[in-house]
Write a structure and sequence with these properties.
heterodimer, A: mainly alpha, two-stranded antiparallel ribbon, 72% helix, 2% strand, B: 492 residues, mainly alpha, 2 strands, 75% helix
Chain lengths: 482, 492
């Protein structure tokens, strides 16, 4: 029995037992802590993690778990963000904890399974909790958040159907003639032994790019993300922007790139991807600068940062992809931290508009420091995790034959570097106008209780530790270049 | 060893006996009728699972007990059992609407008739020729006429009864007419004879096509395949909810087992009408999916929504039927249809069971009535969520497994256009199935009182949820049974 199976099941069982009437706070926190501990055990016991139970013979599908460094790193991100998200819940309604744990269990299942069927299936667990939490328990005007909830549901639902089509195409094209299989390792072996024709690869890769990309808010399939994060209750925003969004990138790195190496390099796919990246970084960057509220600004910034990650996918070499993994973790931690703080502010202040707020640092110095960390991480200051990831991505994407002259990807990288400047503009401006300057009348903000400081500290410590020793993650990553 | 033939006759006799008990005994004993009916179905199930032998020699020419038949017999009995539980749960409502004001009459026959229907469906599953299809089909349909219009004080039930009667009679007429043409063209009515005759160049192709078209149209009415599906929403909404559940699961399954056998003989090797039948099937499948899912978007009543959902599921079943299995793919098309129906049973029954439970406590089936259900009875809210999520085809539920296998079979068979349109239908499902879920977990303006449920309802709900989850995450449990039996075997 592999340790990974309880890691996937504990959040789901905890959610069910809370639904059956057990106390949400204790069970939720307990499950999140237990999961983090079990995952730490799994790190030291990497040899015996694989386990497989056949659930269907033909086509062959198994509930197969197993983890390489990439999966473990993302599972660790999930466990840390889940703990922070569950801990910071102050609403007494159990559904907040239930939804958070369901999303967490789904994400862990998606990251730790090695069968395409379950990788896909677990991700979908988040769909209904997200719809309910945004539509019923979200922020803002009831009819508006209802339409936002439907928008994210339709986008993610249709995106995952496109994804399913792509995965089915992989299974049907790569499976050996003896029978269809969903097993990633078997498909990988088949792809190595008899690669598909380049045009087929390009078509399937593009389908997967659109499918996975919609889940990651790839431009132009991004418009669900920012309003949904702004309207979602805090723990849901943390889980979605911090963890669940990384699933699409994980899928591209773990499934699409290794199985379809020629597809990713096809000219038209590259070109389309590069244009989308420009859209993600520059257009959404400008959109982010123009936001006048903290929550929609954070939502847009999270969409924008996905551009860097897609740049790594476009580059496709080991350095860039390693950077992408570091940045996925870093972004997950920093955006979860930002949304956690944002939630605290919304609860106390009742508004998040920059124009109405100011001088909050005076009464809430702790929050000001925490938000400072989130700001600096998001900009990519050295010493915090995001820096390591961004540097590696830019190095990697420049290192794609630059000696032969500037190619489109290099121009996009140069444009992407301006994204860092834009991040500095909007994050620093937000920091200044919220926490410094003259305090505005009528809005008072105090520091959270010591219990509520823990989740913020947890995320900041993780950011600093990885920022100082990125090798903690980079050493885990297997060779990702093809 | 008891022959399955004897089991069916026993069940029909039990049904008639229960009618007699209800008619001729005192008030007290009538309370026993539902429990006797449940007992009879459980006994049938046990006998089927332990000792079903082949038919007696004199019946072999028209009766078979192959794997397909055995599977559908079990499915029918399980469906009947759930329907009896549903009826018991909504006994008060049913009694109120079917007896005159203030009367102390009970509705024993409501529990006896499903047994007779079940016997008919079991026989249909075993039919080897069209006459052996027709007789039990009439037994089933005529009994359903009674059940649909049973709650006679409800105008909607009466309307449903009339519609079902007229269209049922019409479709039976079309079916018989088609059978006559087939007999005229080929001189045989057995499936075996038909599959030989369609490959015989001397048989008139026009006559065959005409006969096949009429038979398919007649059966299309019974399973609700477009363009013969239009009666479904009104009849399903008007009929008493347990009957709706019975119609949408068991009656559909019985229709599909016959359709499976008919299609198999029409498309036998060398058939001159095979391509035409396949294309008609495919066109009808796509049309059924779209005409089921798209109108479902606009429904405001859960029961009517489920009716449209049942149309769209029939479309997926037809799509499965139109995909000849390839050696790479585990299940043949008849196996796939059987698997899909097995996933369809628990989710649909669970949906209707919850509607019954709500109705019996005065909660209507309009979406606005469902608002805030999660606060009033979290268990029922969860059950409804699981049922709807499975119908929408969310992974880790039975519904997803069925849909995914059908999609993959369609790709394997090269039906790309049909697949693309089917995906549109599935995508629409994300909206219309999630709307009731959202309503259930929304805040109600006035919080209603807490709802209760009986232990029987609780146990049935848990079993149905378990069925949905097991088929969703461990489908091997069922495919093992399906591939073990010859008729549904792998196309290898």
């Amino acid at each position: 029995m592999s340790l990974l199976i309880p890691i996937i099941l504990i959040p789901l069982l905890a959610a069910m037992s809370i639904g059956a009437g057990l106390p949400a706070k204790t069970v939720g926190r307990g499950a999140a802590l237990l999961n983090l501990a079990l995952l730490a055990l799994a790190f030291f016991n990497k040899a015996n993690l694989a386990h497989s139970i056949a659930i269907l013979d033909s086509p062959s599908i198994s509930f197969a778990v197993g983890a390489d460094g990439l999966s473990l790193a993302l599972a660790a991100l999930t466990c840390v963000v889940t703990l922070a998200a569950v801990w910071q819940i102050t609403n007494p309604q159990p559904i907040f904890t239930i939804a958070t744990l369901l999303i967490s269990g789904g994400a862990l299942g998606a990251f730790l399974c090695t069968d395409l069927f379950f990788i896909y299936a677990f991700h979908e667990l988040a769909l209904i909790p997200t719809l309910i939490m945004i539509a019923v328990h979200g922020n803002g005007d009831a009819s508006r958040r209802r339409s936002i909830a439907w928008k994210i549901t339709v986008y993610l639902g249709v995106g995952s159907l496109i994804l399913l089509a792509g995965l089915a195409a992989l299974v049907l094209n790569l499976s050996p003639s003896t029978g269809l299989t969903f097993d990633l390792a078997a498909l990988m072996a088949a792809a190595k032994a008899a690669p598909l024709a380049a045009p087929t690869q390009a078509l399937i890769f593009f389908t997967l790019l659109v499918g996975f990309g919609t889940l990651v808010s790839l431009f132009p399939f991004h418009s669900w993300a920012a309003p949904a994060y702004a309207a979602a209750p805090t723990p849901i925003a943390m889980m979605h922007a911090g963890v669940l969004k990384k699933f699409g990138l994980y899928g591209l790195i773990k499934i699409a790139l290794p199985l379809l190496p020629l597809g990713a390099q096809a000219d038209w796919v590259q070109q389309a991807l590069l244009w989308m990246i420009v859209g993600n970084i520059i257009i959404i960057g400008l959109v982010t600068i123009h936001q006048d509220r903290l929550d929609t600004m954070l939502g847009n910034s999270s969409v924008m940062h996905m551009g860097y990650l897609f740049l790594a996918i476009a580059a496709g070499n080991h350095v860039a992809l390693t950077g992408a993994v570091v940045l996925m973790i870093a972004h997950g931690l920093s955006i979860a931290l930002s949304f956690a703080i944002c939630g605290k502010m919304r609860n106390q202040l009742g508004t998040l508009e920059f124009a109405k707020l100011g001088g909050l640092a005076e009464n809430a110095p702790f929050l000001a420091v925490m938000f400072g960390f989130a700001t600096f991480a998001s900009i990519g200051l050295p010493g915090l995790a995001n820096f390591a990831g961004e540097v590696l991505i830019f190095l990697g994407s420049f290192n794609t034959g630059i000696r032969d002259g500037l190619k489109p990807i290099h121009w996009v990288t140069i444009a992407g570097l301006w994204g860092v400047v834009m991040s500095a503009v909007y994050m620093l401006r937000a920091y200044r106008s919220l926490f410094f300057g003259k305090a505005t009348q009528g809005h008072f903000m105090s520091d959270p209780s010591s219990d509520q400081r823990l989740p913020l500290l947890l995320l900041v410590i993780a950011l600093v530790v990885i920022g100082c020793c990125p090798s903690l993650i980079t050493d885990l990553i297997p060779n990702l270049s093809k | 060893m008891m022959s399955s033939f004897a089991i069916e006759i026993g069940l029909a006799v039990a049904g008639v006996l229960l009618l007699a008990i209800d008619a001729f005994t005192v008030h007290l004993n009538r309370r026993l009728v539902p429990w006797l009916a449940i007992g009879a179905s459980i006994m049938t199930l046990v006998l089927l699972l332990t000792s079903a032998g082949g038919p007696p020699p004199w019946a072999e020419s028209f009766y078979t007990n192959d794997g397909l038949a055995q599977f559908y017999k079990v499915l029918s009995v399980v469906a009947t059992l759930v329907v009896l539980v549903m009826s018991l749960e909504s006994d008060a409502v049913l009694t109120y609407y079917s007896t005159s004001e203030g009367s102390k009459a009970r509705i024993g026959e409501f529990y006896a008739l499903p047994l007779i229907i079940c016997a008919g469906m079991m026989w249909m599953a075993s039919a080897r020729d069209l006459i052996a299809v027709f007789v039990p089909l009439e037994l089933v349909t005529i009994t359903f006429y009674v059940l649909v219009a049973f709650t006679r004080r409800s105008a909607m039930s009466l309307e449903a009864g009339v519609k079902y009667l007229i269209l049922g009679a019409l479709s039976t007429g079309i079916l018989v007419y088609g059978m006559a043409w087939l007999y005229g063209a080929t001189g045989t009515l057995t499936f075996e004879g038909l599959s030989k005759a369609v490959a015989n160049p001397e048989v008139s192709r026009t006559a065959l096509l005409f006969g096949a078209a009429l038979v398919l149209a007649g059966l299309g009415f019974k399973v609700g395949a477009a363009p013969f599906h239009f009666w479904i929403p009104d009849v399903y909404q008007g009929a008493p909810t347990p009957v709706t559940g019975f119609l949408s699961v068991a009656s559909k399954a019985a229709g599909f087992v016959v359709l499976t056998r008919v299609i198999e003989s029409f498309t036998a090797t060398g058939s001159v009408i095979g391509v035409a039948v396949q294309s008609a099937l495919l066109a009808s499948a796509v049309l059924t999916i779209l005409l089921g899912s798209l109108p479902a978007i606009f429904q405001t009543s859960l029961k009517r929504l489920m009716a449209y959902s049942s149309i769209s599921h029939a479309g997926f079943l037809l799509l499965a039927l139109a995909c000849a299995g390839s050696p790479r793919f585990g299940l043949s098309s008849s196996g796939l249809v059987a698997f899909y129906l097995a996933t369809y049973l628990p989710m649909t029954m669970l949906g209707f069971l919850v509607i019954c439970l709500l109705r019996s406590q005065g909660v209507g089936d309009e979406l606005k009535d469902l608002t805030g259900l999660a606060k009033r009875q979290p268990g029922m809210a969860f059950a409804l969520t699981v049922a709807l999520a499975s119908m929408a085809g969310l992974p880790l539920t039975a519904g997803f497994m069925g849909k995914m296998l059908v999609f993959m079979a369609a790709v394997d068979a090269g039906h790309y256009t049909a697949l693309a349109l089917a995906v549109v239908g599935a995508a629409a499902g994300f909206y219309y199935y999630f709307r009731p879920i959202l309503a259930v977990y929304s805040y109600a303006e006035t919080e209603g009182e807490k709802l209760t449920w009986t232990p029987l309802a609780k146990v049935t709900t848990i079993l149905l949820i378990a069925g949905i989850v097991v088929l969703g995450v461990y489908p091997k449990a069922l495919t093992k049974v399906l591939t073990a039996s010859k008729a549904v075997a792998v196309a290898k």
